[in-house]
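Supplementary Methods. Inverse-folding protocol.

Structures were first reduced to a discrete structure-token string of length 122. This string, shown here, constituted the complete conditioning input.
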């Protein structure tokens, strides 16, 4: 289930986001978190099952488009469809928008498309 990010989840969110390429540096990570906390166009969501195991962050780039800036799943829960479920939930949450990937998240989308056609989970 997708839930909105709250400040109380900051450490968990930062831990998940640190798995993203380019987010290893603590200053860059803090900057990204601040962007989600202060800019209305940036929205961060967490995927919760028993625990929080995933994160997806979007930026509303226009009235019709939202771009996925961050997507990360706890390594012990990967290849179980969590990332794909987060994307599907975002699409359901914003049906009027086209959901795009940025240059960092595009490889995930491509991998999912390949694996979906092969019948496995990304």
């Amino acid at each position: 289930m997708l839930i909105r990010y709250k400040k109380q989840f900051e450490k968990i969110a930062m831990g998940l986001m640190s798995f993203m390429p380019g987010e290893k540096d603590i200053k860059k990570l803090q900057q990204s978190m601040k962007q989600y906390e202060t800019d209305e166009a940036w929205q961060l969501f967490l995927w919760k099952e028993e625990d929080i195991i995933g994160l997806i962050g979007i930026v509303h780039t226009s009235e019709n488009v939202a771009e996925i800036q961050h997507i990360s799943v706890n390594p012990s829960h990967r290849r179980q469809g969590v990332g794909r479920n987060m994307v599907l939930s975002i699409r359901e949450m914003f049906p009027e928008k086209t959901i795009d990937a940025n240059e960092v998240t595009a490889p995930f989308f491509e991998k999912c498309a390949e694996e979906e056609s092969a019948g496995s989970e990304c």
